[in-house]
Specification:
Strand 2 and strand 3 form a beta hairpin. Helices cover 37% and strands 29% of the residues. It starts with a strand and ends with a helix. It has seven helices and ten strands. The protein has a five-stranded mixed β-barrel with strand order 5-9-8-6-10, surrounded by five helices.
């Protein structure tokens, strides 16, 4: 089994590099690390922030490393009050919040813009959460767009338009490319902030996601 893991920035991938003792692939222009863990080949990539970077990385991993599945690990902002900092979101589906007008997604994105994650990977993630005794999680939509959401009014508009519980800048493009290539995917995000420009716990949140993904890999 070849498992692809994508994080956007250093803190979202560095724990994987450390835990799995991965080696950097110097021949790649991308920031890619590989290794073997429990007989599984791991391809861990730092894509850079944003939809273009993460979408391009996803296609590159599929073409050059022939991954069997992709997990997107990292942090995200909450879009509604019940979703608290350090809660975990498992993507039921991913969508974009910056397609304008939104109806464009109906014919430009798979599944009319609501790209469903792998049910099998969601179940494995739930088993990993139970193993770690993490109860504060949701299986819910994640919305992505090329902007930092730091304003409460914008946050509320995104929720009303998409129904997503969390917002980031990569999940939708990763899911979009995976779906086009028939590759199972899941975005697993820990909430780092309330999308309002106030206090942010992205490093701690990113590390929590890494721990959960590690447990998923143990169960795969």
């Amino acid at each position: 089994m070849i498992i692809g893991i994508i994080g956007a920035f250093d803190e979202e991938v560095e724990k994987f590099i450390e835990i799995f003792r991965l080696e950097k692939q110097e021949k790649d222009l991308w920031d890619i690390y590989t290794g073997i863990y429990q007989g599984k080949q791991l391809i861990v990539c730092r894509s850079g922030i944003g939809k273009v970077n993460s979408g391009a990385m996803t296609q590159y991993m599929i073409d050059h490393y022939h991954v069997d599945l992709i997990i997107n690990s990292g942090c995200a902002g909450s879009l509604l009050s019940k979703v608290k900092i350090m809660d975990v979101i498992l993507s039921s589906y991913v969508t974009y919040h910056d397609f304008q007008p939104a109806r464009i997604m109906e014919y430009s994105v798979p599944e009319q813009g609501m790209v469903s994650a792998s049910t099998k990977l969601i179940h494995i993630a739930e088993d990993a959460l139970k193993k770690l005794e993490v109860n504060n999680y949701y299986i819910a939509p994640i919305a992505s767009g090329d902007c930092f959401v730091t304003d409460a009014n914008m946050r509320d508009r995104i929720y009303q338009a998409t129904g997503a519980y969390a917002v980031d800048m990569e999940s939708a493009s990763i899911g979009h490319i995976c779906k086009l290539n028939h590759i199972p995917f899941l975005s697993l995000r820990t909430i780092s902030d309330f999308s309002d420009g106030n206090e942010d716990f992205e490093v701690i949140a990113a590390y929590k996601s890494s721990q959960l993904v590690k447990e998923m890999i143990d169960l795969l």
